Amino acid sequence: MAKGRITVLEQYCKSCGLCVAACPKKVLRISERTNAKGYRPVEQFTEGCIGCAMCAVSCPDAAIQVFKEQE
Ligand code: SF4
Ligand code: SF4
Fold first, then answer.
1. What CATH code is assigned to 3-69?
2. Which of 6, 19, 34, 39 could staple 15 via S-S, CB 3.0–4.6 A?
3. From the CB of 28, is ligand 1 less than 6 Å away?
4. To the nearest whole number, what is the mean pLDDT of the chain?
5. In the chain, what are the domain boundaries?
6. Ligand 2 lined by 42 (C-beta under 6 Å)
7. Ligand 1, closest atom to CA 54?
8. C-alpha angle 65/56/44, rounded to 5°?
9. Exposure string for 8-25, b = 16+ CB within 10 A, e = fewer
10. What is the pLDDT of residue 20?
11. Residue whose CA is closest, atom 3 of ligand 2?
12. Residue of 30, 43, 54 with the most ligand 1 atoms within 8 Å of its CB, for mutation
């Protein structure tokens, strides 16, 4: 199965949780940290990202970048 990697641009995240709900592999969660605007940014907390980009597509604030890695 394909592997992926994401980067969260924490300063743009508003903790809406849409990406958490959209991820088919359930590898995202709201973190305990607080960003500059007072929101808790999303983080990937476990392995298993497949690079499907559902999270990035669902994010209204374009806070997630997805990188698909070669097998
Ligand atoms: S790219 Fe897909 S598998 Fe990876 S975190 Fe986003 S929604 Fe989940
Ligand atoms: S969808 Fe975007 S703004 Fe909402 S929690 Fe995920 S990264 Fe943050």
1. 3.30.70.20
2. 39
3. yes
4. 96
5. 3-69
6. yes
7. 7
8. 70
9. bebebbbebebbbebbeb
10. 98
11. 13
12. 54
Angstrom distance (rounded) from CA 40 to CA 23: 18
Nearest CA to ligand 1 atom 8: 23
Tokens of 61: 């604030």
What is the residue with the minimal CA distance to atom 8 of ligand 2?
13
CA distance 71 to 64: 22
Residue 48 one-letter amino acid = G
Rounded CA separation 23/38 (Å) = 24
| Percent of the chain predicted with pLDDT > 70 | 97
Evaluate: CB of 14 within 6 angstroms of ligand 2. Answer: yes
Name 7's Cβ contacts closer than 8 Å, sequence gap at least 6.
Answer: 64, 65, 67
